[in-house]
Amino acid sequence: MRLFYASASPFAAKVRMAAHHCDIDLELVPTDTGAEPADLLSANPLGKIPALVLPDGKGLYDSAVICDWLDRQSGHRLVPQDEAGWLTCKRIEATADGIVDGAILTVYEVRYRPDEKRHQPWVDRQMGKAWRGLAILEDMIDDLGPRPTTAHFAVAGLLGWFELRFKGEWQERHPKLQAWFADFPNTFPAFHDLQPFS
């Protein structure tokens, strides 16, 4: 199976960590989404990463969907199957993914728009979503147990990406998240190799 990814993507990092945890090998295909390569568009017509090409040749996309598929293939090694555990896992995963959704738009605003076309109130609104999400995640992080789940990998991907893009801007506000992030490699040593990097 081939995974179209970028090294800095927190969503791709989440999928890579999940696959590693499930002992599922993926062929990694570094991808420039801006170039809209034909093989990526064949796997995901939306042109976004991560995108996974399944054994039957069909594409699967969106990190949450890919991780759910990996979970099913591995006999549910990623998502608890009791109702309380499932709700906690999916709620934290959705919060982490939503934080990235807001913050990444502000990165794109700077990267792709010339200065005269940037709209600071819009940027502030997106980052407001991200900061509110991190505040909620700060309260939720104690609900994650020691056994790695998709939620762990979503949070680790998010915080690893924040270290790349917003280093020094989040730790003081969120000491629980900072402590969790510092300890996560002890729980999941492969994080050192699979975390977002530029």
Mind sketching the topology for me?
Elements: E1 2-5, H1 10-21, E2 27-30, H2 38-43, E3 51-53, E4 59-61, H3 63-73, H4 83-112, H5 120-140, H6 150-165, H7 175-187, H8 191-194
Parallel strand pairs: 1-2
Antiparallel strand pairs: 1-3, 3-4
Helix pairs in contact: 1-3, 1-6, 4-5, 4-6
Secondary-structure-based class equals alpha+beta
- How far apart the termini lie comes to 24 Å
CATH class division of the largest domain: Mainly Alpha
> What is the CATH fold-level name of the largest domain?
Glutathione S-transferase Yfyf (Class Pi), Chain A, domain 2
Give a count of the beta strands, DSSP E runs of length 2 or more: 4
What proportion of the residues is helical, as a percent range? Answer: 55-70%
Domain count, please report it: 2
What overall geometry do the principal axes of the alpha carbons give? globular
> What sequence of helices (H) and strands (E) makes up the elements?
EHEHEEHHHHHH
% residues in beta strands: 5-15%
Task: Characterise this structure.
The structure is a single chain. Strand 3 (51-53) and strand 4 (59-61) form a beta hairpin. The chain has helices at 10-21, 38-43, 63-73, 83-112, 120-140, 150-165, 175-187, 191-194; strands at 2-5, 27-30, 51-53, 59-61. It is globular, with a radius of gyration of 17 Å. A four-stranded mixed sheet has the order 2-1-3-4. The model has no long low-confidence stretch (mean pLDDT 97). Helix 1 runs parallel beside helix 3 (63-73) and helix 1 (10-21) packs antiparallel against helix 6 (150-165). The chain starts with a strand and ends with a helix. The longest helix is centred in the middle third of the chain and has 30 residues, at 83-112. It folds into two domains: 2-73, Glutaredoxin (3-Layer(aba) Sandwich); 83-194, Glutathione S-transferase Yfyf (Class Pi), Chain A, domain 2 (Up-down Bundle), CATH 1.20.1050.10. The chain is built from eight helices and four strands, in the order E-H-E-H-E-E-H-H-H-H-H-H. It is an alpha+beta fold and 198 residues long.
